Automatic annotation (TrEMBL), chain A:
This is Beta-ketoacyl synthase chain length factor. Residues 45-214 form the Beta-ketoacyl synthase-like N-terminal domain. It holds the Pfam family ketoacyl-synt. It comes from Chitinophaga qingshengii. SUPFAM superfamilies: Thiolase-like (SSF53901). Keywords: Transferase.
From TrEMBL, chain B:
InterPro entries: Beta-ketoacyl_synthase, Ketoacyl_synth_C, Ketoacyl_synth_N, PKS_Beta-ketoAc_synthase_dom, Thiolase-like. The keyword Iron does not apply. Residues 1-396 form the Ketosynthase family 3 (KS3) domain. SMART domains: PKS_KS. The lineage of its organism: Bacteria, Pseudomonadati, Bacteroidota, Chitinophagia, Chitinophagales. The keyword Transferase applies. Belongs to the thiolase-like superfamily. Beta-ketoacyl-ACP synthases family. It comes from Chitinophaga qingshengii. Transmembrane segments: none annotated. This is Beta-ketoacyl-[acyl-carrier-protein] synthase family protein. PROSITE patterns: KS3_2. PANTHER family: BETA-KETOACYL SYNTHASE, POLYKETIDE SYNTHASE-RELATED.
Amino acid sequence: MLTIYINGTGCISAQETATGGPLLANLREYDQVKLATVDPDYKQWIDVKQIRRMSRVVKMGVGAANLSLQAAGITMPGAIITGTAYGCLDDTGVFLTKMVNQQEEMLTPTAFIQSTHNTVGGQIALLLGCNGYNNTFVHRGFSFENSLLDATMMLREGSAQHILAGGLDELTQHSYQILSRFGLYKKEPVKTLELLKSPTRGTIAGEGAAFFTLGTTPGENTVAALTGISTLYKPMWEGEVIGHIMKFLEDNACTPNDIDLLVTGRNGDIDQDDIYEEVVEALFPEHPEASFKHLCGEYPTAAGFGMWLANGILADQAVPDAAMFYGKAPRNIKKILLYNHHQGTHHSLILLSHVE
Amino acid sequence: MSEKVWIAGGGVISGIGLNLRECLGAFREMKPGMGAMQYLSSVHRNTFPVAEVKADNTTLADMAGLPENISRTALLSLIAAKEAWQSSGLDDISRYRVGFVSGNTVGGMDKTEDFFAEYLADNRKGRLQQVVHHECGSVTEIVADAMGIRHHVSTISTACSSGANALMYGYRLIRNNIVDVVIAGGTDSLTRFTLNGFNTLMILDQQPCRPFDETRTGLNLGEGAGYVVLVSDSLAAQLQPWCRLSGFANANDAYHQTASSPDGTGNYLAMKGALDMSGLQPQQIGYINLHGTGTGNNDVSEGIAINRIFAPHFPAMSSTKSFTGHTLGASGGIEAVLSAVSVKEGIIYPNARFEHQMKELPFAPATAWSEGNDLRHVMSNSFGFGGNCSSLVFSSF
């Protein structure tokens, strides 16, 4: 089977992930229930006139995509595959609000045009002048994972050499209001480094974009291969998750012993973190474990941040203190298993291997 | 990986019929589905004709076996997906590794837009039940859960090409041995959000649309759902498949967020790529189901790209949107089913209301229904916002 290399990564998040340097060198600590991205200077990639018209999700997508291509030294990918659960929420909200308030009269097209879920993928293609395959997955907690799976399958069949794949979601005033009413978030602000020990229900809201330039040959700066990707939809019970992980490891020719570091999607919601405990106890009782959602917040494509972090850990061969959840990372980190779930219904596994 | 992927069946619900048989009957009898809005509530009710599915939500919910307060997009989706499955002869769904890949453009927006009126007045108000299925993926899951599909569930949203891209992804999932069967296509119901959006773009015709006609002035929106059942070689051997999905390509026009490039670059690349993948010469295509929205811009770009590839041997072609309206995320799925039937039964669909030759093009669409034609290979085009262009090729054995 062909190896799929991660030749470049780009991430825009609530941490200073767009500036390079050692992983999480300047940790941003928050004491709030919703995190917004730390925005880089978008002028480096986008014309000033266009920036003004673009919503945040489009900007963060274009930014993360460009960071990833630059890191890989690729100017033109063969395909662009985007994952976003919510799509362009801000423009959707703007158009809906005007439509309701103005009783369907005197509306303008800009917000509608930018509200479609493929706006980000389309804008990246437009700015790069990329005529290649372009697809957008919009499946909740599997949106990002599907973009990786599609990219992997395409690279293996040889229909592209370099594929830009990523996931992103934005948090808006409306989405935060409405999702809060569903009881997703904590009632009180919580400190970044205390979230994962929180004894209550609910998590913190987040947003962000992570893109990866994937290819079948390694580049100069390549440190990791995307060895496996798998999703599990609505498992009936914990045993099914555990069985799925065992099968996934087996399919990728390894056992729990081969995993040097577990990266989990713990989000500080006691109900939702329960399954991580079950999995750790059953399969990885003594394994060092890192986590990431206290750093970026919870959103359906947050696994993108997790994968960006895992790639960075393989590059540095060290885990930042702020990300360490249990135990101590070994000196030599070869394989990282990222296990994430979104709202208990969407479970995903991403296996990364160190490339010397 | 030389395994082929077959079409084992299909299902459609649209403005011209509640199932595939009814839809085919409407083409045969030249009965397009557009008219005044009966079910969507909008101030534009008397301005823009639409091709609505001729049933209220209570009736659709009854057909689908779902509660009637569920998004109409999910109701349409489940009805067509069930029909597709039943037509495949696959029987008990739990016996297979099944995937459901569905395209849609605005998820449960039909309910969200009702919610929003109350919510905007007071953000503590509005029934949450109406937004719980706002996400595109949530609509797909209602259907997957109702059908008992768990091995793979995903949703694609690339505007008007969503349904076509779902078939490509389904094909890959089978070839990579992730599942054995995929129900692939798309769904969308009419919403005020989309109607008003297209109205701001000034591409809605106030009359029934006239695709590929010199006098065309825009599209009519429609609604519906369409799915094919894709199966692997080994399963196809036990069934009587309609045809196979022999080629496809997805390209980006990279020209403008909503408009097509004047020379139809993306359209050309999609059609060319699909032909290359299926190993066909242009003259082997017997019929093209056009994207053919009826807007000035789309039809000329698509036509110029077709001219570039097919001249001087033009296959029969038509826009079935002249009957179903533009069903957006569903259109790629609906037209995939129609194209697969076209290969199976040699059907060339009529293009309604074509009278005036487009001056830019040397060919004209078919205007009459015919069946029993010898069609070995049929192409289906789906082009959309964001520059997303996709073409599929269906071939007989």
